[in-house]
Amino acid sequence: PLVAVIIVAAGSGTRLGHELPKAFVPLAGRTLLERAVESVFGMREAAQVIVVAPEDRLDEARALAAGRAGSAVGYLDVVSGGDSRQASVKRGLAVLRPDVDTVLVHDAARALTPSALCDAVVAAVRASGAGVVPGLDVVDSIKRVDSQGAVLAGVDRQDLSAVQTPQGFPRRMLLSAFDTATEEQTDDAALVLSAGFPVSVIPGDPLAFKITTAWDLHRAELLLSARAQ
Length: 229
Ligand code: C5P
Prior knowledge:
CATH topology: Spore Coat Polysaccharide Biosynthesis Protein SpsA, Chain A
Radius of gyration: 17 Å
Distance between the termini: 40 Å
CATH superfamily: Spore Coat Polysaccharide Biosynthesis Protein SpsA, Chain A
CATH architecture: Alpha-Beta Complex
Strand content: 25-35%
Bound molecules: cytidine-5'-monophosphate
CATH class: Alpha Beta
Strand order of the largest sheet: 5-4-1-6-11
């Protein structure tokens, strides 16, 4: 059986303050999309990699992704995205190969994610038969606040995990959750959970942080330049 990784890269990324859609923004000479694709093709096993890109950039996405596939054994498909992240994932699910048993969904914006984290998610899905998400302990104190900024209550951080991607699921579980979904959820784990399936957390990786703001992009550049020395 094959693993499929859906890389969602169809967002506009307005919070980054860049003219380009986020996945096409360069980071130390290579786009976020190229970096994400390279990390996924670095997995231990062959995968079907499905890139979900903006409709007007399909050819560009295909060329960038193919250039980073290297000599990896696997398959590459590029499809156009939808209006929301969830709609984009659904477009990716529509082209799963028949022999895929495990599906990972990954944000292109988490461009520095190590390949080993993808391998760990796949292994945990196969071992548990459930949904698996990487997560980090929350180190800050978290407060619930109202629109005026008044603190309403604290939230016990022992009960919290800051979850990342790739999020992995048995194929049938994810397809069933998408078929029954009635409303937009924040991520795939929330969708699968709301469909009544179990999801558990495995240790995430700080390098899998999501590049959202200009500061995140700067941080990613600093990390890469430190690695090059
Ligand atoms: O906007 P946000 O950072 O939460 O997006 C997370 C990921 O989902 C990004 O990689 C983005 O490209 C993708 N996305 C998408 N289609 C959308 C919205 C977001 O593929 N309509």
